[in-house]
Design goal:
- The protein is mostly helical.
- About 45% of the residues lie in helices and about 10% in strands.
- The protein has a single domain, classed as Leucine Aminopeptidase, subunit E, domain 1 (3-Layer(aba) Sandwich).
- It has a two-stranded parallel sheet.
- The longest helix is centred in the first third of the chain and has 18 residues.
- The mean pLDDT is about 95.
Amino acid sequence: MNKARHIIHTVGPVWNGGKNGECDKLRSCYANSLHIAAEHGLTSIAFPCISTGVYRFPPDQAAQIAVETVREFISKPSSLKQIIFCCFAEADRLRYEALIQ
């Protein structure tokens, strides 16, 4: 396994019922991280399941936002060639696989 040469830190939103712009904030976390990576000419990026732990973002919604945001980003040319969703729980892996298929 290769070590990360760069870290792009993003702070996901805390889930407060979904009426405080949490979905837009999470989408922004992914989009901004992707743009920063591309601006620096990076070729790969890995994302954990942002905000789904102690911040209580519903995992199904969070995965949908992550996949949609990445799909939108990769529809345009950039230096990024590999985008990884790093899932530590089996349920998350299955959730992402279903969305990516």
